[in-house]
Design goal:
Layout lengths: L13 E4 L4 E5 L5 E4 L14 H24 L7 E11 L2 E11 L5 H14 L1 H6 L4 E5 L1
Helix pairs in contact: 1-2
């Protein structure tokens, strides 16, 4: 289900110069970073790269979704962390990405942690946006 423009609560705006070997900045000046391809892809690795930025956004969003689910389930996720690993590689269409989401939730048992992560994956906007488009692996 998509949202309508009238339902948008916030819009982030970022502009890139020179693609993967340049600069990305937000319109409010809060983010202004040099981007370079990683050494593994023939770049200098001097700056950040789109995969790192995507991993940062996905992990933060997923952690937020985990908090929402935990409140609904009355589960303690204090001290939890979510790590997103974003890989890029060649596929039939050129390049594609793959994501592994790993959550550490110290205050619940393994079965509860797995259930919370699966529910968070259903409500996280990044998960929804990528569902059916890329492989996303969940790990607890």
């Amino acid at each position: 289900m998509s949202i309508q423009q009238s339902d948008v609560l916030y819009t982030a705006v970022a502009t890139a110069e020179n693609g993967r070997d340049g600069r990305v900045a937000t319109d409010d000046g809060k983010l202004d970073v040099v981007v370079n391809p990683p050494k593994e892809m023939g770049g200098s690795g001097a700056g950040t790269n789109p995969e790192q930025l995507f991993a940062a956004g996905f992990s933060a969003c997923f952690q937020g979704a985990l908090g929402v689910v935990a409140r609904q389930e009355k589960a303690d996720v204090s001290g939890s962390t979510v790590t997103a690993e974003v890989g890029i590689g060649r596929n039939d269409d050129g390049f594609g990405i793959i994501v592994k989401i790993s959550a550490v939730i110290p205050n619940v048992d393994a079965a509860t942690a797995r259930e919370l992560v699966e529910k968070a994956h259903q409500v996280c906007p990044y998960s929804k946006a990528t569902r059916g488009n890329i492989t996303v692996e969940l790990a607890v």
